[in-house]
Amino acid sequence: MAEQLTFPAESAAVLEPRLPPKLESKDASRSRPFVTLTFATSLDSSLSLAPGVRTRLSGPGSKAMTHYLRTRHAAILVGVATVLADDPALNCRIAGASHQPRPIIIDANLRWTPRRSDKVFEVCRRGAGLAPFVLTGADASDLPAASVELLHEHGGKYIRVPSTRSEATGRLRFSWDDILAALQAENLTSVMVEGGGQIINSLLDPAYHKLIDSVIVTIAPTWLGQGGVVVSPERVTDSAGVPFPVARLSHVSWHPFGDDVVLCGTLQE
Ligand SMILES: NC(=O)c1ccc[n+]([C@@H]2O[C@H](COP(=O)([O-])OP(=O)(O)OC[C@H]3O[C@@H](n4cnc5c(N)ncnc54)[C@H](O)[C@@H]3O)[C@@H](O)[C@H]2O)c1
Ligand SMILES: Nc1nc(=O)c(N)c(NC[C@H](O)[C@H](O)[C@H](O)COP(=O)(O)O)[nH]1
């Protein structure tokens, strides 16, 4: 039986000021999607026990909260390593959800080979989710025909995004301005960025703070230990080389959900 979650209307009302305009209210004035950064973390800032290991952090209440966020955003975005590690469904599993988010997979270097048995396609065939849009730096002529066809059959596709090659790794990278421009071009008016670590750390670069409209973090009362996938953005220093905090939330509120606490805030003044 497919998982069915419930999220109380009172909790939804508490979160409302943190969320994008309702999807049916077309706000034509925005030049980019509303961005919510959201993830579940341990007390030692870990998203998972190790790269490639799916790790349950959220209890039932905060998990339902995450799924409520999924139904309130046009799109849900994850990095390719999360797809390879988790085989995620990337759908909303709240009973009777009126909207499913469009999964966005950041796969600049084509690491993911989509397969018919992947959960994201399985839920799509059941009518319980949408097929992914895969953001890639590859040219159309380099895309594997079978992957293009599988995505197309389910209503998904590859979208080419401008990229630069990192000198350190030789891998293609996107800027968040370009990622969001690609979503805007698809009429995706809001996106929740769910992870994993590299995606979140790159979005927390001070250059991108102005792009983040809301931050919603589930904190679970557990330590995962060293070696996990950690949220800790690259350090920033002043002109004398002295480090200062990368980011601090303002307009903060804390909401208990079972054993977990959900921290809401904003990076904008
Ligand atoms: N607790 C949570 O809320 C949560 C959420 C998501 C994922 N996870 C966990 O996180 C782990 C995966 O995290 P991770 O850090 O290893 O990988 P990730 O999911 O962040 O994906 C990393 C990859 O994304 C791509 N990428 C990232 N930033 C990019 C950019 N700016 N431009 C182009 N490509 C970019 C690169 O290919 C990179 O290798 C998994 O174990 C997963 O279970 C946990
Ligand atoms: N809120 C939350 N609590 C957790 O305990 C946990 N492990 C995640 N993790 C999110 C995550 O690792 C990816 O976003 C999944 O890949 C999504 O998978 P599903 O779509 O739910 O199948 N998120």
TrEMBL record:
<comment type="similarity">
    <text>Belongs to the HTP reductase family.</text>
</comment>
<feature type="domain" description="Bacterial bifunctional deaminase-reductase C-terminal">
    <location>
        <begin position="33"/>
        <end position="263"/>
    </location>
</feature>
<keyword id="KW-0560">Oxidoreductase</keyword>
<dbReference type="InterPro" id="IPR050765">
    <property type="entry name" value="Riboflavin_Biosynth_HTPR"/>
</dbReference>
<comment type="function">
    <text>Catalyzes an early step in riboflavin biosynthesis, the NADPH-dependent reduction of the ribose side chain of 2,5-diamino-6-ribosylamino-4(3H)-pyrimidinone 5'-phosphate, yielding 2,5-diamino-6-ribitylamino-4(3H)-pyrimidinone 5'-phosphate.</text>
</comment>
<keyword id="KW-0521">NADP</keyword>
<dbReference type="InterPro" id="IPR024072">
    <property type="entry name" value="DHFR-like_dom_sf"/>
</dbReference>
<comment type="pathway">
    <text>Cofactor biosynthesis; riboflavin biosynthesis.</text>
</comment>
<dbReference type="Pfam" id="PF01872">
    <property type="entry name" value="RibD_C"/>
</dbReference>
<dbReference type="InterPro" id="IPR002734">
    <property type="entry name" value="RibDG_C"/>
</dbReference>
<keyword id="KW-0686">Riboflavin biosynthesis</keyword>
<dbReference type="GO" id="GO:0008703">
    <property type="term" value="F:5-amino-6-(5-phosphoribosylamino)uracil reductase activity"/>
</dbReference>
<dbReference type="GO" id="GO:0009231">
    <property type="term" value="P:riboflavin biosynthetic process"/>
</dbReference>
<protein>
    <recommendedName>
        <fullName>2,5-diamino-6-ribosylamino-4(3H)-pyrimidinone 5'-phosphate reductase</fullName>
        <ecNumber>1.1.1.302</ecNumber>
    </recommendedName>
</protein>
